[in-house]
Amino acid sequence: MSTDKPAGVESYNATIERIENVADGLSIFFIRPDAPIPGQLPGHYVSIGLVDPTSQKLIRRPYSLSRSISPKQDPKLLELLVIRVPEGELTPILFEQREGDRIFVRPKMVGTYLLPELDTDTTMILLSTGTGVAPHMTMLEACVTTCKQVVMMECVRYGAELAYAEQIRSYAESHLNLTYITLVTREGGNKRYIQDYFRDGILVSEHGVSINADHTHVFACGNPAMIGIPKEDRKTGALSFETSGGLVEILIEQYGLTIHKPRVPGQIHYEKYW
Ligand SMILES: Cc1cc2nc3c(=O)[nH]c(=O)nc-3n(C[C@H](O)[C@H](O)[C@H](O)COP(=O)(O)OP(=O)(O)OC[C@H]3O[C@@H](n4cnc5c(N)ncnc54)[C@H](O)[C@@H]3O)c2cc1C
What we know:
Elements: E1 2-3, E2 14-23, E3 26-33, E4 45-51, E5 58-64, E6 78-83, H1 91-94, E7 102-105, E8 123-129, H2 133-146, E9 149-156, H3 165-174, E10 178-184, H4 194-199, H5 202-207, E11 216-222, H6 224-227, E12 231-232, E13 239-240, H7 247-255, E14 268-272
Parallel strand pairs: 8-9, 8-11, 9-10, 11-14
Antiparallel strand pairs: 1-5, 2-3, 2-7, 3-6, 4-5, 4-7, 12-13
Bound molecules: flavin-adenine dinucleotide (FAD).
């Protein structure tokens, strides 16, 4: 999160070309920078900013880049799936913008939530809550065309928030190595969370997914409660989990996976949104 020194609308360097309303307070923003931003890799994010009309300050926040499967979009357009946080600083202003309005985009692709080298033995598991599906949309095609098996799981509050479900389902029909699982938590019925699928071995028993350190990568993006990020003791490297039962803890303890770090490659990759 960053609130810059006064910088006004003169910093605006991009146009909101199109806004697709997905559900109440959830939209896809298609933004065209005046100059294309080079170097995008699947999983990258950008920072966008708008001037707060009250404080006159430029409020900036990071957003993962997303990518619709169909119709195919102009690769120079930045696609962002954003949920409005009513008490937030930037999103209430963002949701007042209209197509054609100007906006600031930091002209740099950023992030370390990036795909490892993929091969035909790889099982790729892409897990998200809410708008955390965005970076996985940029990864999906590369994974499906190379990996042996791809599992994409999304957990949202209401079914209407599954922004790309139709596209993903139709893609899965023609790509049989892709399994797509959706979980909805606030529409009644049996509440199941992503972690349950790993804790109870459901992915293995019901979906035939094999999970092991030799060929599996797990990407998890969104709500920190789903991910369950541990604290690491700097001296000993020992991990401690503030709340137990999170995904990372289960993947380490039940499946023997390790957290990926730039210098110590592992199989668990995560991006937390707050
Ligand atoms: C690397 C990265 C990528 C991100 N990508 C996306 C994205 O693709 N789409 C997206 O909508 N957001 C994304 N976020 C979150 C985004 O940067 C903002 O934090 C969010 O949009 C809220 O901004 P705000 O200024 O309105 O609220 P703020 O004033 O920043 O936050 C108010 C509070 O809202 C809560 N909050 C933040 N984000 C969410 C959320 N998504 N759902 C529910 N509560 C939240 C937090 O508790 C936060 O303290 C990403 C964050 C990071 C770090």
